[in-house]
Design a protein that fits this description.
heterodimer, A: four-stranded mixed beta sheet, globular, disordered N terminus, B: Rossmann fold, 4 domains, six-stranded mixed beta sheet, 21 helices, 21% helix
Chain lengths: 225, 829
């Protein structure tokens, strides 16, 4: 069923669940992110893949990665995985920041927010600090990445990407509930013939990626890809 | 759809074939996911491993254009010819289909790939009639107790067994290229999970089945399967066409096509000279099966009400309701898409409205279509953006100085800029309100985009004024006599039109006294009007039922009928043929997925088909005066054996263009014998079957990221960022043969585009070479959403997929065979 509107309030913050078993790589999330956040277009060409743009950018905060692999049993898989800020509970980017207030944690949601002051930070240092290689520098010198649509969430709305997802692959809510949902779904997926299913870094991040197969079948970040 | 989107969630097994639901109907996957969470298996059958295949439990490849062979093998499996065990829902097949009907084998035969009755490319369907007794009643296979059986050697069921016994795993695999073990895996996964009375399987299909020279027969094959498995009429079952435009169902219901009037009434033809002749000729007679309701016998009621809607008080019983004012088609002349463009090309048709469409990109053999436009005197394009059609005169290969066509571009309001209804694939008519005003030129407020209906109104009034001013005008009555009061009435035009479509009760002077409640109350005597009988009830005295937005409670509506959300035709019936969802006593095959149920006194649940009581009483005796469940069919039963223009049961024929010079079925008929192939001339060029010039099979498809030809999406930079340009997908093996690397620029050539379409090569594991008749056959695929007007006007870009496709198609529908044709590929110099 459609999700209830998320009411802001005291909680263990918010989290997303990205259930890749339900993701069809329609990339509604990718476009909805740009639409809500009014992000510029990356000029692209077809590089012999559906995946585009070729990388995250200051104006591309969410990117679906496509990877084709032949499995040991001979079957083919085409795996889709979202690259975007995972909103770490204990954010390394924030720890790496040298200027007070340049990177903050939103009190209500736990979202990791890059502020105006990031233009005074070392881009390479912040980017290298990110385990998932997310930050990108804009032409104005600021650093950019997903902000959990905290403006929407503070006003009782779902993040734009979650709102746009047609298949219920993306869900969002209070962290405790999302964690419980994720664990229950993980057991279903395991029972459905995917004993290696995992939730990546579930204790450490707010974007929970549920994978049916071992992580090596997916493109987890630019550095690994 | 016989069912609807939400109902997909009720399925035990889902086969996606002839469509790519995840990419082209993403929202459908929400309901597919619901079914999967309840344990349903998802099967994807496609020449290419798609985003649907990526989430499927089973993926099976097949060569484009071989779906009947693939499904013919499934029928053989169901009937026990493969695997040795029969898998049919026996009571359903006996009671609710024509499987027991006896064929007249003195007339009916299937010989050397052709059914009896063929002359030229036209079948006489009389050769396929059933045996009848002296009273004209169809004879059936009966057992020793006089009950219907499936054993008589002349019955449909036994013919089916013989016909499909030829579709062995070996034969099918040699045609489709699908490995035999994969065929069996699919047959078992589908059939074994839904032939039981309480199980349901569904098919999600789209243009991957229709755009073939055997398009209608592709769907027939699956319909036969669904009838044998007892899957029509039940929740989670049905035969479900995924419609490609949000309102294509509505536009078809309201007679977008030439052969129908609103509500699927037949278009009058020139030898049906008066209304009585029309009423006798345009409907099936109730013969052969006394328990058939044969709903189409009510055609005269709907036609009279339609004519009253068209001509108002001018239409009366004593003037045939002005039937003579309706345009008639010439007998034997086809007015479908391809003949229309041929008529433009040949100079017969001088002008065209391209309204909300882009034939320069959407049509098969688009080069010929573009040349046809160059021969028009005038062309009016109504759209929200400039299109390749409106700009054809400066497109690739065109010299504007040589073209005299006068082109008008009219901006229209987008869907959110006007009020009205759209009808989705599940037949739900949903009312939408205007969100914003259409754009206006800030420098001239007279220049503004208008709703289509307003443009039509201005056009009609201008035409009418011309007729009024010309005393010598030919046949002015049908224009001057048209009832046209939608733009000066008490409601906004959309509401006036919706009420007109529903219909009015009329007093003796012909004045409306109120809205008709439902179509069972329409009359033949001129006391009712209805613009479309099928939509009668959509806007009645209860109000605008299409505007209802009450979602049902899953506790009381576990199968999600949502009967008070919007309104659905016919008569708000959410699942068509739902009287086949119960046994002959009226008990649901599956109580937990009950669509309707007989309480002993009445039906509960969905609106039952026809409403008649169950076939048998509580003591198990057949009742008098009740009706079989398939009320829209002449004989009241599902047609396993059914008359189509190209045969009563499907047979595999090769596509018009194919890698094979002969039909592997072992008979002389390579191509569907009922297909009309236009005279060979330069603009109709066809590749030689089995030839070496164009040896690669190709199919066309849509992308998630662009809508149809891209008219609405190629102006959106965020979407172009995702899918920026034309590409062709090919296997690693073919790329190696051709010396092509991933991302290379290549040319895709066909008999109709010999210079080649420019594309980027996507070299992928998702295409694999097929082994067909022992030979390696490659297949590639191209999208058809790209053009040269947007994202940037560039007439050097030869990038439309439909430049490659042929303009020959299905004999029933004339839809072009865009899904299986032959090409060659080379690296761009």
């Amino acid at each position: 069923m459609a999700q209830e509107i998320i009411a802001p309030g005291p909680s263990n913050g918010k989290s997303y669940l990205c259930d890749t078993t339900k993701c069809i790589a329609c990339r509604s999330c990718q476009v909805a992110c740009k639409q809500w956040n009014e992000l510029d277009t990356v000029h692209t060409t077809n590089r012999g893949t559906y995946e585009n743009p070729h990388d995250l950018a200051w104006c591309c905060w969410a990117l679906i990665r496509f990877k084709e692999t032949e499995r040991p049993d001979g079957t083919l898989a085409w795996d889709f995985l979202r690259n975007s800020c995972r909103h770490c509970i204990d954010a390394p980017c924030k720890q790496a920041a040298e200027h007070e207030g340049s990177i903050t944690i939103d009190a209500e949601t736990g979202a990791v927010i890059f502020n105006e002051g990031t233009k005074d930070e070392s881009y390479s240092k912040i980017r290298l600090a990110c385990p998932f290689d997310n930050p990108r520098q804009g032409p104005d010198g600021r650093l950019y990445k997903c902000v959990m649509c905290y403006d929407r969430v503070h006003n009782g709305e779902l993040p734009a990407c979650v709102k746009a997802c047609p298949t219920d692959a993306l869900t969002f809510g209070d962290r405790d509930e999302i964690l419980a949902t994720a664990e229950a779904r993980l057991e279903e997926v395991k029972a459905d013939g995917f004993p290696n299913a995992t939730i990546l870094d579930k204790r450490d991040v707010r974007l929970l990626l549920l994978l049916a197969d071992p992580a090596s079948y997916y493109i987890l970040s630019t550095r690994e890809g | 759809m016989t069912n609807h989107w939400i109902d997909i969630g009720n399925s035990d097994v889902i086969i996606v074939m002839g469509s790519n639901a995840a990419e082209n109907h993403p929202i459908s996957m929400r309901w597919v996911n619901r079914a999967r969470e309840s344990g349903a298996k998802l099967i994807s059958v496609d020449p290419r491993f798609t985003r649907t295949s990526a989430v499927a439990d089973i993926y099976a490849p097949l060569r484009s254009g071989t779906d009947i062979a693939f499904l013919g093998g499934m029928i053989n499996y169901i009937l026990g010819g493969i695997g040795g065990t029969e898998h049919i829902q026996t009571e359903y097949v006996k009671e609710y289909t024509n499987a027991s009907f006896l064929l007249d084998r003195t007339k009916f035969s299937f010989d050397d790939g052709v059914f009896s009755g063929l002359t030229g490319n036209t079948y006489d369907q009389g050769a396929w009639a059933f045996q009848t007794d002296g009273a004209g009643e169809i004879l059936k296979s009966v057992d020793g107790d006089g009950k219907w059986s499936l054993d008589d050697p002349n019955c449909v069921y036994q013919f089916l067994k013989t016909h499909y016994s030829r579709y062995t795993l070996e034969m099918v695999s040699g045609i489709t290229g699908t490995p035999q073990e994969k065929l069996l895996e699919v047959y078992q996964a589908y059939v074994d999970n839904c032939y039981q009375p309480d199980k349901a399987g569904t098919i999600m299909y789209a243009m991957g089945w229709t755009q073939h020279t055997v398009g209608a027969q592709n769907i027939r094959t699956m319909s036969i399967i669904q009838l044998l498995l007892g899957n029509i009429g039940v929740a989670g079952g049905g035969v479900n066409a995924l419609r490609g435009e949000s309102n294509v169902q509505g536009s078809t219901d309201h007679c977008l096509l030439f052969h129908i009037l609103p509500g699927y009434l037949k278009t009058p033809q020139d030898n049906w000279t008066d209304l009585a002749t029309y009423n006798e000729s345009a409907r099936p007679l109730t013969t052969g099966e006394p328990r058939s309701l044969n709903w189409w016998k009510k055609t005269p009621l709907y036609m009279a009400s339609f004519l009253k809607s068209m001509y108002g008080t001018a239409a009366n019983p004593d003037n045939d309701f002005r039937y003579d004012w309706l345009p008639k088609i010439d007998v034997g002349v086809n007015y479908a898409w391809q003949p229309l463009f041929d008529a433009m090309y040949n100079g017969t048709v001088k002008g065209m409205f391209a309204w909300g469409q882009n034939p320069a990109c959407s049509s098969g053999n688009a080069n010929k279509v573009r040349q046809a436009m160059a021969k028009l005197d005038w062309l009016v394009c109504v759209n929200i953006y400039p299109t390749e059609t409106a700009e054809f005169w400066r497109g690739p290969g065109m010299n504007p100085a040589d073209i005299n066509t006068e082109v008008f571009e009219l901006p229209c309001a987008a869907s959110v800029e006007k009020e009205g209804s759209i009808t989705n694939s599940g037949r739900w008519a949903q009312w939408r309100y205007k969100a914003v005003d259409p754009p206006v030129n800030p420098d001239d407020e007279n220049q503004k985009a208008k709703p289509d209906s307003e443009i039509m109104n201005e056009l009609f009034l201008a035409v009418k004024a011309l007729y009024e001013a010309d005393s010598a005008a030919t046949f002015p009555d049908s224009i001057l006599g048209l009832k046209w009061d939608y733009f000066d009435g008490p409601d906004i035009p959309s509401v006036m039109l919706a009420k007109e479509i529903n219909g009015y009760n009329l007093d003796e002077e012909g004045n409306p006294t109120g809205l008709v409640e439902k179509f069972t109350l329409l009359a033949e005597d001129g006391t009712t009007s209805s613009g479309n009988w099928l939509y009668c009830q959509s806007y009645n005295e209860d109000g605008n039922n299409m505007a209802r937005r009450i979602a049902s409670d899953p506790a009381t509506d576990p199968i999600g009928l949502n009967s008070e959300w919007a309104w659905c035709w016919p008569i708000n019936r959410r699942i068509i043929y739902n009287r086949a969802s119960v046994d002959v006593l009226g008990t649901p095959w599956n109580e937990s997925r009950r669509v309707i149920a007989w309480t002993g006194e009445r039906w509960e649940g969905d609106v039952p088909d026809g409403g008649a009581v169950p076939l048998k009483d509580a003591d198990g005796n057949y009742r008098e005066g009740t009706y079989l469940p398939f009320i829209m069919r002449q004989h009241g039963v599902g047609q396993i054996f059914g008359p189509m223009k190209d045969g009563p049961v499907p047979e595999h024929y090769e596509p018009l263009e194919s890698p094979l010079a002969a039909n592997p079925m072992g008979h002389a008929q390579r191509l569907n014998p009922a297909v009309y192939v236009p005279p060979a001339e330069e603009m109709n060029a066809v590749a030689t079957p089995g030839g070496t010039e164009y040896p690669i099979v190709c199919s066309s498809y849509r992308l998630t990221e662009h809508w149809q030809t891209g008219v609405m999406t190629r102006w959106t930079p965020w979407l172009n960022e995702l899918q920026p340009e034309m590409f062709v997908e090919m296997s690693e093996e073919l790329a190696a043969e051709k010396g092509i690397a991933n991302g290379d620029r290549v040319l895709v050539k066909s008999a109709r585009e010999t210079d080649g379409v420019q594309a980027v090569a996507i070299v992928t594991k998702r295409f694999k070479p097929f082994t067909i008749q022992g030979q390696t056959v490659h297949q590639v695929g191209v999208p058809w959403c790209f053009g040269w007007v947007a994202p940037a006007m560039d007439s050097t870009r030869v990038t439309s997929g439909n430049l490659l496709t042929p303009n020959v198609g299905d004999p029933n529908t004339r839809i072009p065979e865009s899904k299986a044709f032959m090409v060659d590929i080379e690296k761009e110099a």
